[in-house]
Amino acid sequence: MTKPHPDTVTANGRDYCWPDRPLVVICLDGCEPDYITQAVIAGVAPTLARFCEQGSSLNAECAMPSFTNPNNLSIVTGVPPSVHGICGNYFLDPERGEEVMMNEPHYLRCDTLLARFAEAGGAVAVITAKDKLRTLLGKGLQGICFSAERANELTLAGNGITGVLDRVNLPLPSVYSQALSEFVFAAGEVILREHRPDILYLSTTDYIQHKHAPGTAQANAFYAMLDPYLASFEELGAHIAITADHGMNAKTDAAGQAQIIYLQDWFDRHLGSALARVILPITDPYIAHHGSLGSFATVYLPTGTDANAIATELARLTGIESVLTRPKAALELELPADRIGDLVVIAERLQVLGTTASRHDLSGLDAPLRSHGGRSEQIVPLLFSHPLVALDAGKRWRNFDIFDLALNHRRPA
Amino acid sequence: MTKPHPDTVTANGRDYCWPDRPLVVICLDGCEPDYITQAVIAGVAPTLARFCEQGSSLNAECAMPSFTNPNNLSIVTGVPPSVHGICGNYFLDPERGEEVMMNEPHYLRCDTLLARFAEAGGAVAVITAKDKLRTLLGKGLQGICFSAERANELTLAGNGITGVLDRVNLPLPSVYSQALSEFVFAAGEVILREHRPDILYLSTTDYIQHKHAPGTAQANAFYAMLDPYLASFEELGAHIAITADHGMNAKTDAAGQAQIIYLQDWFDRHLGSALARVILPITDPYIAHHGSLGSFATVYLPTGTDANAIATELARLTGIESVLTRPKAALELELPADRIGDLVVIAERLQVLGTTASRHDLSGLDAPLRSHGGRSEQIVPLLFSHPLVALDAGKRWRNFDIFDLALNHRRPA
Fold it and tell me: What is the complex's ipTM, to 2 decimals?
């Protein structure tokens, strides 16, 4: 007996057909396309190999900055940060005048399509690796929503479910582990089997991808871990759609030394100490992955500074790919103008941006730095278990087209 | 007994101190910095690990286009293609009106520093993997100059040496093999031991790098093969300096499908059949590596075409990173204006450019396409066995600074 439901659901101006079977959408954190290619070549991911051969595969652009929160929110809203407002993990809140994590749901400026499907009578479940994403993704959602990190603290009121840890045959994972992502898949399997949601959104952590290059034994082991879960989702009758929040590149020289431009130090020398304020939106309480070093920064300039002149000067530095003033950045990168600084700075592919040398603790990095945030990490996979139809050839796909593609371009049954 | 020699040698406006011991400069074809980093992490390259720790390491920009011939010639002349004239493996010769390989020495517009050192009394030896580079690198050179590919055909008049194959304990290698590069190192070891040149230039082939990602078993095996030769060069008293002609990136989606824009097809649709002429400077008789697919193309437009208008239109295509008109390309990319078309087209990191679908034979590709040619493959390693001194911090290093760095910035004995 199926419940009545509308044919389509609308969210943020986009229409989505109702799923004809459970749809599992997976955001594989930091999944540069080559991670999948290499795991398939290595023969450790037969289900992914089957998707590559029998389903559909596209390259797509993620939202800028190529960080976790902006992209997870783009994926579940179908729109860029200029609309949903989440333009970093961390920002300078203009109302409070202080730097804060952008994890609170009130920062999200639109509804999620997940909440809209649930409103329309759909069963929706969301499982994240870290808890920091859970409250944003779950905004307004009547459904199941929890993180692997806090799977031992679930309440019916807060998470729409309890007792997950007992049903998943895995211990509560460490936040710095591949096991955190594995728990997401294992819990997803339990939820899919026992609750059969119309939409299941799974979001992992890039702990492995920050440390290990595509095709290395450790990276392949991550995809080998994932693969049987995908097979299981299929056996349970689901369609599966996979994308990433961002890619990943080495940020080092041949010797494995991180290539860092300390922007706050540069501005302190050029404009005077602590007059400009450099914000790194990658900043996160979990710094062992990347030492808060990414390829994107935004800068608040002291009143009266000529933003264009300083942008031109900064853009000349070796390793800087581009410097955009606020209006240009808002337009070209689809960012909310009121939540970025006077300048947006993007580093080259093998380069990252820091604040001051003294503020970055790199002692937690036990492998040569790999990170993201720039244009060079913008291409991510779109991989579907089932073939898509009626695609517009040559279109610039975005990772936040994934629900549109999976629901509106599936082959008619 | 040392022969008298000048303190410095000048080539193309740059001065080079005379080597105080044999200097081995190695151009590792397609050596994205991460290949070295990953081989060191994997523990298969102890000599490279020692260079990383005790020598000097920098990231540098190669010359554009990021192809083999332009960069090998930049390295041995110390200047960009705008000066030396070699801007591709292949081009439209304006004098002959036909597309030809750019391998003939008369295309080279300046002297090499190798020839200048030899003129000043230095003993110079050059060993390349493929023969196509030999004649260009050996232009005007009184010294040893041969390729692994034709090591069985040496003449004293043509190569300055004979009998190499008898002295190298390896069979004549196949042109499609890692063995072709290994032969370069093995022959280099013989030459260094028996002839003790002041300068030994070794240039490999990217057969492995076109097929295998950094950190994979096969890529690591290449660097493991190289490593004992480096140790041997050091034991023989040489300083070693390593760079690359270009980096390397996957040019595929997650499914390993090559991401190709067929430019000639696009121009044929937009301007009429065969009116524009798309040239791919990666073109090479050895196509099994890459099917002549790279991330750089140049286009000759029919007379009367508005180059700016068509550039703007082309730049909108998904996967195109930039389109420059001839004067802008010549200036910004340091290219010889008379040897490029009306437009220069650069593709994005995971994207390549073709002519027409029918003209590319991809049947030789037995692994997902990896290639180069674009801005995204411009960063290459500069790795020295010995520590450098008096470096200008923040300078934009080029791979063709390698002789300057090795000879003029060595620590005084």
Answer: 0.94
